Amino acid sequence: MEIFVGCSSSKNINSKYLELAYEVGELIVKNGHSLIFGSSEEGMMGEVYRGVVDNDGKVTAVIPANFRGLLTEVKADKTIVTDTATEHLKYLVNKGDVTIILPGSYGALAELAVSIQNKKLGEHNKKIFIVNAYGFYDELLELFDKIYLEKFDSCNRDDLFRVVEKPADIFEQL
What we know:
The protein is an alpha/beta fold. The chain contains seven helices and seven strands.
């Protein structure tokens, strides 16, 4: 399977998140899968990438044309250049067979929201995993519960995505 991983490209985060990302890359390859991601060597994105390539895995990198030169591009088995960031998001969410969201900023949140919404609307039935390492997404998950409990949405989050604390838990569920 081709696994889409959404996460931070920030270089300024705690090393525990970088180690987590590298572990995800390793696990992708060790479980016989390949990576599709947003094409940066920096931050968690770079560590997922290195975890894959250090273990001889396959990588598809997707980058918006207007980000060329802003993000460090990676050497990949396949590189897709989209015209816009919106097309970039759509491609990543639709192309991967599984979505894994690691801690991240607005980009990771957008990837998560679009993945969940597309699943809810029946555009796909892919597994979506949120890695809530170190409680990073605790408040977001509380908000998702509130959305359901206060009837802003009729779908229980358990029908849309799964929450794990450790990346290894994902691969036991694939």
